[in-house]
Amino acid sequence: MVARILVVDDVPANLKLLEARLSAEYFDVMTASNGTEALALARRTDCDLILLDVMMPDIDGFEVCRRLKADPLTFHIPVVMVTALDSPDDRNRALEAGADDFLTKPVPDVVLIARVRSLTRLKMMVDELRMRAAASIEIGMLAPDPSVMADAGKGGRILLVDDSKSSYERLATILAAEHTIEVEPNPSEALFHAAEGNYDLLIVSLDLKNFDSLRLCSQMRSLERTRNVPILAIADPENSTRLLRGLEIGINDYLLRPSDKNELMVRVRTQIKKHRYVDYLRENLQNSIEMAMTDTHTMLLNWRYAEVQLKVAATNAIAKSERLAFLFLDVDNLKIINDTYGHSAGTDVLKEVSVRIRKSIRGIDIGCRYGGDEFVIVMPQTDLHVGSLVAQRFVRSIAGELFSINGGERQIAVTISAGLAALTGTNDSAKGLFDRADAALLRAKADGRNRVVVDNG
Question: Any idea what DSSP says for residue 54?
Answer without folding.
Answer: S
